[in-house]
Amino acid sequence: MDGTTAVNGLETIATGPMWAGFVVFVLVMLALDLFVFGGNKAHKVKVKEAAIWSGVWVSLALLFNFGLWWYLNGTVGREIADQKALEFFSGYLIEKALSVDNVFVFLLIFTAFQVPQQYQRRVLLYGVLGAIVMRAIMIMAGAWVVSEFSWVLYVFGAFLLITGLRMLVAVDAKPDVENNPVLKLARRYLKVADGDHGERFVVVKNGVRYVTPLFLVLLLIEATDLVFAVDSIPAIFAITTDPFIVFTSNLFAILGLRALYFLLVDVADRFHLLKYGLAMVLAFIGAKMLIMPWYHLPVQASLMVVAFLIASSCFASVWVTRQKK
Asked: Of 229, 227, 235, 232, which Cα lies nearest the Cα of 288?
């Protein structure tokens, strides 16, 4: 493909300045959130605020995609520009949909630890920062593995198919938060201060440093995102192997995760069938990767199937909820 460079052995349409520009954009947005828009201050996030921020992040993702298309259209041609823009949008939709599953687990964790909503914002902020670092490392590692061992894509496909089918079977099973291995390990090796300590992660008592229960919640949030990354990153490699598209679509979905959580926290029970849709999305993507040697499903077709599964599960959730009422 003309106009491409290589990252870890995989072709990418992005140049060095494009990578640098996107990283700077992410850092600027995080700084604005922290120091200008009060992201580091404890307060209860209302639905209106969450809806505005969700709209901002989705709009920024779409603007980025248009800017990418416009740049590529002028440098490498319309065909490549259309393909890359479609890959970004498909990857972003998949990552955004799969991040909804994170919301359900985050809600379960906050409920189990009885974390007041005004403190949840700070936990999710640091959770997003940790997720960005972990995703960056995993994407670069995944790109290297795919470039060196192309057959690993079929391993990814089998893993996603099995994961999707397991989710369908155990869709109503709730994670056992109290017996989580990460939590057990933390309680064994860290001094944990009992009681409410506001939004602090660490306190000092009689010269001894303790971590607070809120710090344990943060650990679980980070561990949860790591687990979900194992599903979501292979899923987007089914759409594209361009590291830049994988990286940018992933990060846009993560950056909007906190706003999405507060937008859905009060209506999560209304979309109880969405997990079935997400499970079918994973199974579909896994099957798509496994049949690649015999049939390559176009990105447009994949986008339509994923959108249909998500939309139909949301519609079914609302319809069933109304019927019960």
From this structure: 235
